[in-house]
Amino acid sequence: MSKKEKGAPLNPHLRFRAAARPASAGNLFAALRGGERHRRALGQAITLLESTQADDRQLADELIDLLEASPPAKPTFRLGISGTPGVGKSTFIECFGLAVAEAGHRLAVLAIDPSSSLSGGSILGDKTRMEELTRHPNVFIRPSPTGGHLGGVGANSRAAILCCEAAGYDYIIVETVGVGQAEWQVHGMTDAFLLLAQPAAGDELQSIKRGILELADHIAVNKADALPEAAKQTALELRRGLHLAPARVDEWTVRVTTISALTGEGVTELLEQLSNYADKMRQAGWLRQRRANQRITWLRERCERELLADLDAFLRERERTTDGLQRILDEHISLSAATNVILAEFKQRNKTTLL
């Protein structure tokens, strides 16, 4: 029998090394806040947040409490970026990110990849598409799976942002998986929402108008180098579409510009416009209010996630019993009646547990 048949590794020089679990949330928090190893600690912290193990979840909650209790001393800026597949988000983030880093910021990019519905894994390809940005000493890039979470962002993206800020990164970019009806969620965890559009989008442009146009704080039409006239026309149509959106309470005027992530055309100007937005919103108190509202949303999300996890565990437990769910369906005429029975049992079990 060959070594391969015996289960020997294909490469004998490769050795699996399990990630060491942090000794405590306090040690991990201290590593995030200082020292040359903060990048390693940051990766370890985000991995902890993504874990579904019970012990890790408790440690992650302790870390989140420490992060919230000790916010960064310097102001930070959180930018959400979304756009249809093929619009050039990765190319744009590399070009824009280099401009951010050259302006003196420490940049963290949380690139959210879609998860496989079968394995739960993700492509995690953004690091390979942002080679120059990855090598920059003041840039941290972390691809993370959505884990099936709606909204185009990961379930733990909010906590990951806090980790990046604790590690000294003052400019945070959250890249979403694409434009959809649930993309409002990235708007609910960032200070500004940048929508990337492509020229000559046709019906795709109409779906953007109906979906997230009113959430955008700035809109940039990419690929102006290859399709300059089409980019101008698309920008014009988007400006017209903005008139359909309700008036903003912060009185900010959303701008639509044309850029080329490939050549860098318009990217520096876009950075200046976003900086202007941050200054005005911060001085007027809107950023502080926006983050306060986001914390309330985060609380609701955590409560909903815990309840759904408990309900899922309850249903799985019933399914393990003999004809558990099927018996309830057979005993009741309608699906709604069977649903009411199951939820009543679930609520009663939780009530008994609390007592």
Q: What's the topology here?
A:
Layout: H1 25-33, H2 38-50, H3 54-69, E1 77-83, H4 89-102, E2 107-113, H5 126-129, H6 131-135, E3 139-145, H7 157-166, E4 171-175, H8 184-187, E5 192-197, H9 203-211, E6 218-221, H10 228-242, E7 255-258, H11 267-283, H12 286-320, H13 324-331, H14 335-354
Parallel strand pairs: 1-4, 1-5, 2-3, 2-4, 5-6, 6-7
Helix pairs in contact: 1-2, 1-3, 2-7
GO molecular function: GTP binding; GTPase activity
Protein name: Methylmalonyl-CoA mutase metallochaperone MeaB
Family: Belongs to the SIMIBI class G3E GTPase family. ArgK/MeaB subfamily.
Which labels suit this protein?
single chain, 355 residues, alpha/beta, Single alpha-helices involved in coiled-coils or other helix-helix interfaces, Rossmann fold, 3 domains, seven-stranded parallel sheet, 14 helices, 50% helix, disordered N terminus
